[in-house]
Amino acid sequence: MGKDICVFIECKEGKIRKTSFELLTKGRELTDKLLSNLLAVLIGDNVINLAEDIRPYEEKVIIIDGEVYKDYRWDTYTDALEFITKKYSPFLIIGASTITGKDLFPRLTARIGAAFISDATGIEIIDGELKVKKPIYGGKIISWVSPKSTDKVIITFRPNSFSIEKGNRTGEVIEEKINAVPDKRMHLVNITKGQSEKVDLQEADFIICGGRGMKDPENFKILEEIADIIGARVGASRAVVDSKWRDYEDQIGKSGKTVSPKLYIGCGVSGALHHTMSMDTSKVVVAINKDPNALIFQYADYGIVDDLFNVLPALKEELMAAKKEG
Ligand SMILES: Cc1cc2nc3c(=O)[nH]c(=O)nc-3n(C[C@H](O)[C@H](O)[C@H](O)COP(=O)(O)OP(=O)(O)OC[C@H]3O[C@@H](n4cnc5c(N)ncnc54)[C@H](O)[C@@H]3O)c2cc1C
């Protein structure tokens, strides 16, 4: 088996997602160690113009362009990636642990008979062996997993797991033509867009999350205001989303999104496992809760035991003052 690594580039609304640049940076670091090639696979409709953005990171940009790939579909995208992995034989295929990644990669794994490690947060190569960091049991244990050296491996990583550093390569652009035939049993009816002007929750560097302790949807206004000051994104617990206080696209947790921001501020969030398992890799966690025994404090780097309706206005004032001072 070769030593090349393939990165699946994910696009959203005509742009390459930030998480793909993280994977390209990490992939380049690994292939530098292995003295091998990094391949990027970009699938979509009219995506050739995006190749320039990723050429500095790797040796080859493989483009699969066509109207049939306009929107993500499991059938055409799995066909395309299967073709690429068979033709170029990378030993490792990496992608993001996003909604698309969670749908696509298990299918590809079954097609090509690979080993699959999902939702990882780190990777190293020690003495030629892959060591993959993966939180388990809702983040209570960090495991290091090593696939068999004979296996082809597919790994998905949580967004925000790696930093981005632009390289100075000039990757060769290769266009591949694949005759992917969409499964006639399904067709796309329409796509309902969420509030697309917001930063993607999974890619946000700063998140301020409201739980049931916020008491009322109106009270999320102060979270939005604080988010505006620090350039954060507002998230929510499932209790909040189930109460229709916030849209589902804001939900963090097992049945929502997995996040790994630089800063997570939980306001009136109890810290139930179904929530914390999807934010436990945040770099810094601040919890505001009036119950000193709230589970969220077990994950917090900084904890404030107080009524959030006292804390949030004071926090907003301080942040505004700090911003003015520059
Ligand atoms: C299969 C399954 C999937 C699930 N998926 C998810 C998921 O994706 N995401 C998710 O979040 N949950 C999920 N849950 C639900 C999860 O188990 C919890 O019920 C939920 O996270 C609780 O939300 P909460 O912390 O906002 O509310 P609560 O548990 O009600 O906590 C509210 C907190 O606010 C504090 N509080 C109240 N008033 C104030 C105040 N004035 N000032 C300061 N603090 C205050 C309280 O002390 C309390 O700790 C799932 C559950 C199941 C069974």
Task: Tell me what you see in this structure.
- The structure is a single chain.
- By secondary structure, the protein is α/β, with parallel strands linked by helices.
- The chain folds into two domains: 5-175, HUPs (Rossmann fold, 3-Layer(aba) Sandwich), CATH 3.40.50.620; 201-325, TPP-binding domain (Rossmann fold), CATH 3.40.50.
- The chain is 27% helix and 26% strand.
- It contains eight helices and 17 strands.
- The chain has helices at residues 18-34, 51-54, 74-88, 99-112, 220-230, 238-242, 273-276, 308-325; strands at residues 5-9, 11-12, 15-16, 38-44, 60-65, 92-96, 115-120, 122-126, 129-136, 141-145, 153-157, 172-175, 206-210, 233-236, 263-267, 284-289, 302-305.
- It has a seven-stranded parallel beta sheet with strand order 7-11-6-1-4-5-12, sandwiched between helices. A five-stranded parallel beta sheet has the order 14-13-15-16-17.
- Helix 7 links the parallel strand 15 and strand 16 (284-289).
- Helix 5 packs parallel to helix 8 (308-325).
- The longest helix is centred in the last third of the chain and has 18 residues, at 308-325.
- It is globular.
- The termini are far apart.
- Flavin-adenine dinucleotide (FAD) binds at residues 211-213, 237-240, 251-256, 268-270, 272, 274-275, 288-291, 294, 307-309.
